[in-house]
Amino acid sequence: MNTKEKTKLLTISLLCCGRPDTTERCLKSLMPIREAIDSEIQVVDTGCSPETRAIIEKYADEVFEFTWCNDFAKARNFQLDQANGKMFLFIDDDEWFLDTKYIIDFFKQPNCTEYNIGGYYQRNYLDFEGIEYSDIEVVRMCSVTPETRFIGKVHEYIEPAYGNAMFMDAQAGHFGYVYVSEEDNIKHSMRNIPLLKEMMEEQPDNLRWPYQLAQEYRACKYHEELLELCKKALEDARINKEEEAIRYRGPFACGIAIALDELDRYDELIEFYYDELKRNEIMDLAVAKLSTYAAKAFYVTIKTKECVEACNRYLEIMDRLENNKGEIFLQGGIFVFDAFDELHKNTTYCYLMACGLMNDNFGPLVHYYRRISWNSPVVRLNRGFIKMLVIKACEYGYKKELRDVLNKFFTRPGFRDVLQHEIDENLEKIDGPMWKNLKSAFKTTDREKEMNLFCDIRLMERRLLEGDFYTFSELLDKLLQYAAMTEEWHGLHIAWMEEKADKNEVKPEVRLGRLFVEFAEKKDGDPTVALKILKDAIGVRKIMDSTIQSFSKLYGTYQMIKEEKEKDPNKFAEMYNLEEAILKQIADLDAAGKSDEAIATYGQLTSIIRSTYGVDTLHF
What pTM was computed for the model? Predict the structure, then answer.
């Protein structure tokens, strides 16, 4: 309990046990507030290294020690009891303020002490480069009174939480949810799960604890546990008619949808979605988020009409709420707060476009592709949409509506790579005429030449797979053409890459082409070296394996004939010339319409050559 006389307007406090670099970054970001406002910085040391402690003492007005007891609320309350400020702002040691202007502006207002509770936006980065992130409101400010306390061993919260609230338009960067490995992610959640279960036992009627446990289950991919937890919690929230319980209903409903989606139980998800719409007991923001999962379930089960309805429901709610930050805060929570982020908006647009394409309706494609932020640092597109785009390009060829969208895939190299990957995923379904249409679909796009080569390479692979080549030299010539084509494509491809992409990466088809060139250089030398090259080529690009195996057999025959030629050049030349002459006779017979005689003559020729050299022809 803090009953101290207040000598400052603001106490800025943090619990610290972290790394020196993140701690110093955090403390440095606080200095503009410290200098502009009548404030103090207090740090509670819960087990810092000597290096971190030295950094703390460089910035903090006061440092207190606290023996860690596996209870965040106890640590926060100890922290709160030391405060000399009328207002209390706390930040984690792995966060740092990106800009403090709005915080300073707020605390310079004469009436700032009239607010009981508030916070800022935590910017949770989703990658170590800080490109992709999501912003979520976090309660990190309160007035300091004898009644103010923290509750909860983990995911602690402030009580009392009523009165005037203020969320400052400030972001604190946070890499705390980016992990080097999945194991680290699970380890973090496994630390919290037992503490949350303890809180559920201590406070069985407090929905906050299953609410927090749900996000830990999701992080660990415990989907069955998430499903059962959210089902029970949703029923409890329905019984409880208090406003706070009503707010929890949406997150629990979305937790059920997430679990069913991850478990591929789409029919159950659809049934649950319709049941929630009928009940009309969850807030609109949660309905919007729930609709995104329903849209996927409808799309996967090929219910395009219902998918479009779910998408339109999402968009209708988005139009009403997206720019209403206050309402989003009131209706938000885990699994819900990000309903209108770029991922969910883009996914919805993609479902609408894909459903339209399924029904040969290009209107949604023309309407919604412009809404996607193609130039954003991170853009996620629904794979079903990309697949449908490829299918329709194979079906229609050049069509302006398709061409305009395909050209957007050349806004950034990453989009092009996704498109090429999707074409590769559907290779078995694309036949000869479809390849012609697909190439035509890229006419006048920014990467027309590259995409034509990409398609030609795949078409050549298919023809080699289905072809029947009689001679070694004929097939070698085709493989060297393949090598030249892949090399030309490679040059265009690597000339336009993502900034952080590996410029030295060589695609399988290019590596294979280079092996063919190497083989051609070695074929007349040591046969074991040449055969080793062909052996290495197996598995580089699976679609070419049978062609390489056939080629290896032809090379064996080529080597045998070569040895026979070297053994008795005159005899070989005599037999070779005989074959030439008879082949000419066969051609003349065939031209004269004497096919039966031509076939019989050819049979006699192959019989003679086979009895002498063990092969059907010397033309290798």
Answer: 0.83
